[in-house]
Amino acid sequence: MKKNLAALTVLLMIATPMVAQASPESDLKEFRSHFTNMFPEVPVDDFINGVYSVDEASRAQWEDFEEFPPYEIYISKGEDLFNKKFANGKSFAHCFPDYRQGVRQNYPKFDTASGEVVTLEGDINKCLTDNGEKPYGWKKGKIAYVGAYLAYMSRGNKLDVNIPDDEAAMAAYNRGKKHFYAKRGQLNISCADCHYNNAGNRIRADILSPALGHPTGFPV
Questions:
Q1: What sign for the dihedral angle of Cα 146, 147, 148, 149?
Q2: Which of 15, 186, 200, 208 could form an S-S bond across to 30 if both were Cys, CB 3.0 to 4.6 Å?
Q3: Distance between CA atoms of 187 and 180, rounded to whole angstroms?
Q4: Three-class DSSP category at 14
Q5: Over the stretch 49-100, which tens digit does the pLDDT of each residue have?
Q6: CB distance 95 to 130 below 8 Å
Q7: How do residues 40-61 score in pLDDT, each as one tens digit?
Q8: In this structure, is the dihedral angle defined by the CA atoms of residues 75, 121, 144 and 95, taken in order, positive or negative?
């Protein structure tokens, strides 16, 4: 649940924690404004490209990289797993009937029945267990391949994160918001310290990407 809330925080593209009783809508407006003021030359729609939207050299390398993308093999593996029949004769397509039109953009979402945040990866494993199969391990391997395939099929769709008018949903949102700005660890830094306050700056050789746009790649 903690991982899901952290992911939801980034996907909601929230604003500064000093705004008391802010709504998700006002948070979103403030969050976008922060980055459009920081990078006025970047079109809002281009922030989906992460660090490539704010650094010309990185973008040039990325565009060259896309000529022969090495990730295609993993998308192909995901497609094979997606279409593989379960022991009961069904497949992932029975759980994700609209996958050809894209489903990645609908996650994460809040399930009012369970009171929990639902992720695509969570639903991939739920599909397996609902059909009598063993769930995949987290973070890498098969779950990443199937997730990558579904994300690839969803390219071009606008992420659609909705927060129900529900007390539990707002509580989850606010916990995630707090998590994004909370300082932790030996270095006493937060997600926001890097990807909100210092977007575009360097941390050693790495350029810190703007949090506006991270929904295209998180949760990992």
A1: positive
A2: 15
A3: 15
A4: coil
A5: 999 999 999 999 999 999 999 999 999 999 999 999 999 999 999 999 999 9
A6: yes
A7: 999 999 998 999 999 999 999 9
A8: negative
